[in-house]
Amino acid sequence: MIYNFADHTSVISQYLTEMRDIKTQNDKMRFRNNLMRVAQIMAYEISKELMYEVVQIDTPLGIAPCKKISDKIVVASILRAGLPMHNGFLEILEQAENAFISAYRQHHKDGTFDIKLEYVTCPNLEGKVLIIVDPMLATGASIESTLKSLEEFGKPKNVHIATVIASTQGVNHVRRLFPKAKIWTGAIDEELTAKSYIVPGLGDAGDLAFGTKLQE
Fold first, then answer.
1. Domains and CATH numbers, the chain
2. Predicted structure pTM score
3. Whose CA, among 5, 82, 91, 211, lies 20 to 30 Å from 162?
């Protein structure tokens, strides 16, 4: 249940190369645009797995049988880093409903951290296709907390997780807890630092997109 774009030839490789490169990371607009472009391509690929219905459409010269998406879709983004990707998904899946989750790491002096969720807004998820967007899948703790927090909004028909870079540990963690969810990632890196940052990764996606925070 994993689609790793690094295993295939596509322009995502170009965008990911630019996002990883410290020589181009100072250009925040370019970084945000690349996040959005990756999301647009992922949205297109995910669209191939949606359900469609045939409708009869009047054209100026007759009637054409056409296919339209019949699934109800909810795009859920983890703030703040997920916002550019969220916009990219809406460019393709423009009828999707939206959910937003404010989640962050609360670090402790011993090097551990907890995931804190301070805000969740979400429509009814019952029977819908849920797409969770977060550029980095490190330990998988944010995805775990997000999915658990969304349980009260109904049971989705399918769950997709879209991320730019994932770690092997994070992927395994999510697969163990949510075996039916499908992960879409631009690349999978092997290492995590002692503070659970992906290596080689690309750094803090939120900071690179929107500027550094005053504190963790």
1. 2-210 (3.40.50.2020)
2. 0.90
3. 211
